[in-house]
Amino acid sequence: MKKKYILVLVSFGLFISCLKPNCEENAKLSRNRECLLIIEQELPTSTPYLKARGRNLKTSKSCECLDKGRWWIQYRDNMSVGDTLIKRKGELVFYIHKKDTILSFPWECEGKIYK
Predict the structure, then answer these.
(1) Residues 83 and 97 sit within 8 Å (Cβ to Cβ)
(2) CA-CA distance, 49 to 71, in Å (whole number)?
(3) Dist. CA 36–CA 39, nearest whole Å
(4) What is the dihedral sign for C-alpha 20, 112, 89, 36?
(5) pTM of the model
């Protein structure tokens, strides 16, 4: 009986460790993303992902920033029409430029801020 109990605990520990994110790999993926956009439409609230529509800062053409990661969308309440979203490729900081304020949000995983 004692062996079964230990086996269950070890199995549970292995299962829990599999649920932890691979922060280094996720940071690498996030570094490759870019969004340079002036928001022109309200952000949808029906999705847990970022789906911002507006104008590209470099080209002034209509564009959309889509992201299936949940890093950016946690700041949805800070984003409004007219704000500028800036996430440069190679960086792990997401900026929201408002008329009188710049908000910056570093990428964080498991309590650690990545650069």
Answers:
(1) yes
(2) 9
(3) 10
(4) positive
(5) 0.76
User: Which phi and psi (to 5°) does residue 87 adopt?
Assistant: -135, 105
Structure token digits, residue 17: 């460790």
Segment 49-59, tens digit of pLDDT = 889 999 999 99
With tokens 């304020």, the residue in question is 101
pLDDT on residue 27: 92
pLDDT in tens, 16-47: 556 678 999 999 999 999 999 999 999 998 88
